[in-house]
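Technical note accompanying the year-one report. For the benefit of new consortium partners, we illustrate the data format agreed upon in the data management plan: each record pairs a sequence with a structure-token string. No post-processing was applied to the example shown here.
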Amino acid sequence: MNRAAANGLLLITGAVWGMGFVAQSTAMEAIGPVFFTGLRFLAAAVAVAPLALWEGRRAAARGSAPLTPRQWRNFALLGAILFSSLAAQQIGLLTTTVTNAGFLTGTYVVIVPIVAVVLLREFPHPVVWPAALVTLTGIGLLSGGRLDGLTEGDLWTLLCALLWAFHVIALGRFVRGAPRPFTLAFTQFLVCGVIGCVLAPAFETVALAPIVAAAPEILFAGVVSGGVAFTLQAIAQQHTTAPQAAIFMSTEAPFAALFGALILAERIAPIGLVGCALIFLAILAVELVPMLRPARPAPAHEP
């Protein structure tokens, strides 16, 4: 596969993820957010299961060491964090727009290095700090220029971005020494799905009718946005550069806005469009600048 074809697959991945926000939003007309999250990720687990089995057989054939109980526990913990993040996003979609959800979720790119500083004392590229300010400005404009303009759904979506930042950091630490991405994906999807289905009866109506009514959205968000898009990303990133991959995958946010306008007839004020643009530019800056211009190492101090 050449680089152009790989970038095309990544563009499709961004578009699928963007359209996934529409499916998640329309599903709320028939089913509760916790139950939807559980069913969606059970479907994703089924979609990824064949790849996880193939990966396990290949590892065994190569004589690779099996995963340890600790690694399995770490994968399960990722599933719990995944559920917390995606359930918050799904609750947010009850009262925010697909456009807002797409861009606000993307702020995790800026949040990740900030959380890494607080928890791990890992200091990011200097571009993170102006990008964080630009992101806050964009969020303010997206809310109409007033903090009280943020809806409850916007706040839930920002909580999703924060939790997703924790997921990204934990993933980076847990996957070291366990190069089994499909097994990891299957495990966290399965755990996330089970948690959602177990908790749903305590908060929502659990019945067959909502499942049938939301079946297209469940399958799209689970199988297509989860299983298929994840596989496309894994294949494409073997044949393109990291900076180009970042650009094409970050199109998830503008695609969410596009499909929200085309399918749901969502409209956003001009000042909100400026906010979206600022958030998107901040996301690109944090993804690309460290790759193109690495931070200079701190000068050594003589004793």
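Partners are asked to follow this layout when depositing records. The two ends are 52 Å apart (CA to CA).
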